[in-house]
Write a structure and sequence with these properties.
Elements lengths: L1 H23 L18 H5 L9 E5 L4 H9 L3 E4 L2 E4 L6 E3 L2 H9 L4 E6 L8 E2 L1 E2 L6 H6 L5 E8 L5 H10 L2 H9 L18 E8 L3 H14 L3 E8 L1 H10 L4 E4 L5 H5 L3 E14 L7 E2 L1 H9 L5 H4 L2
Parallel strand pairs: 1-4, 1-5, 7-13, 9-10, 9-11
Antiparallel strand pairs: 2-3, 5-12, 6-12, 8-11, 8-12
Helix pairs in contact: 7-8
C-alpha cells in the first residue's frame, strides 16, 4: 500500500513540474517566436547579409539607346577597332529596353548596377558618386559631375506650323521652366512664348529618357494652346531619328548627339536641355561611390564581383 501511495505522489510531482515548464515557455517554440509561428528575418537582418563576394549583375540598355551611347562614350567603354567605335559592354550584361525597366531591374536585385537619366532618378534606387562628385543638376552646372549629355530634338525642313509652335514653346521661358522643374538643366537666354496661332497634330517620337520631360512639356503646352494635339511615341534615340528622317514623326527625340549620318539625311538637331547620367545600385548595396575606372571595369566585365570592383 505504501509503495502504491509513493508511486502516486511521484507521478503527481512530475506532472506539476511538466506543467510549470510548459507555462514558463507559454506561446513560444524553438525559434523564439511568441505566437507559435516561426521567426522571420527583419529587413535589417537581410541588409546585414550583403555579400561583396557575390557576382555583380550588370544591367545595360539596348542597342540604339541614346543613354547607352552616351554612357559608353563618357566612361570609355567603347574602343576604336579598324577605324570604327565598338561598344565593349560585357556580353553577360542584362539588357533592358527602357528607363523604367532599368530602374525596376536594379531595384529588385541587390547586386545589380545600371545607369539612368538623372531626371528620372527616384528613391527606388541609389545613385553613387562618381569620382567624388554627387549626381545633381547643380554639380553638372558647375562642372564637377562630368557624366552629362544633351537632350536633342531633331526636325527636317518645312516643319508644320503646329510642330514649329510646339518647338517654340519648348525653347521658351515657360518651356524651360518645365525642364528645370523636372530636374534637368535648362537653356540660358530664352524668351517668353508667343504662339503662332497653329492648330493640328504633332507627333514626337524617340528616346525613353527624353520622353518623361517631353510628356511634361506637352501637358504645359496644351494648357496654353489646346488647338494642337501632341502625341508622344516612346522608343529609343536611333528609332526616333529614323522616324523623323522617314517622316513618320514631326519631331524626333535623342538623348545624345546626332550622328553625322543622321544630319546628312536632313535632320537638324536642337538642344532642349542638359541631363546627367546617374550610375545606380540597389538601395541595400552599401557602395556609395565609384571611380570612372571602376565603372568601366564593371561594365566591360574586367571585374566580376563587388569586392574585386572596390579594390
Amino acid at each position: 500500500m505504501k509503495k502504491k501511495v509513493a508511486a502516486l505522489l511521484i507521478t503527481g510531482i512530475m506532472a506539476v513540474a511538466m506543467t510549470a515548464c510548459g507555462s514558463s515557455n507559454s506561446g513560444t517554440d524553438n525559434s523564439g517566436s511568441t505566437d507559435g509561428t516561426a521567426k522571420t528575418e527583419s529587413s535589417a537582418d537581410t541588409d546585414s547579409d550583403w555579400d561583396n563576394t557575390r557576382d555583380i549583375t550588370v544591367v545595360s540598355r539596348e542597342d540604339g539607346s541614346g543613354t547607352r551611347g552616351a554612357f559608353v562614350e563618357l566612361f570609355g567603354i567603347e574602343e576604336e577597332v579598324n577605324g570604327e567605335k565598338v561598344d565593349m559592354t560585357t556580353e553577360e550584361a542584362n539588357i533592358t529596353n527602357s528607363t523604367s525597366v532599368m530602374m525596376s531591374t536594379v531595384a529588385q536585385d541587390e547586386y545589380a548596377i545600371g545607369y539612368i537619366s538623372l531626371g528620372s532618378l527616384d528613391d527606388s534606387v541609389k545613385a553613387v558618386k562618381i569620382d567624388g562628385s554627387e549626381a545633381t543638376a547643380e554639380n553638372i552646372k558647375n562642372g564637377s559631375y562630368k557624366i552629362s549629355r544633351p537632350f536633342n530634338i531633331a526636325t527636317k525642313e518645312d516643319l508644320s506650323d503646329a510642330a514649329q509652335d510646339f518647338e517654340d514653346f519648348i525653347l521658351s521661358t515657360e518651356g524651360q521652366k518645365v525642364v528645370e522643374d523636372n530636374k534637368y538643366i535648362p537653356l540660358d537666354d530664352v524668351s517668353d512664348y508667343k504662339s503662332n496661332g497653329a492648330s493640328g497634330k504633332v507627333v514626337v517620337a524617340g528616346s525613353s529618357s527624353v520622353s518623361p520631360v517631353m510628356e511634361k512639356l506637352k501637358e504645359a503646352y496644351q494648357a496654353v494652346n489646346s488647338d494642337v494635339e501632341v502625341e508622344i511615341q516612346t522608343s529609343d534615340s536611333t528609332t526616333g531619328m529614323q522616324n523623323a528622317i522617314d517622316g513618320v514623326c514631326d519631331i524626333g527625340m535623342a538623348s545624345r548627339e546626332l550622328k553625322d549620318s543622321e544630319k546628312e539625311a536632313g535632320l537638324t538637331p536642337t538642344v532642349i536641355a542638359m541631363d546627367g547620367i546617374a550610375v545606380v545600385v540597389n538601395n541595400d548595396n552599401p557602395t556609395d561611390e565609384l571611380s570612372s575606372d571602376q565603372v568601366k571595369s564593371i561594365f566591360t566585365g574586367d571585374v566580376l564581383t563587388w569586392d574585386e570592383a572596390l579594390q
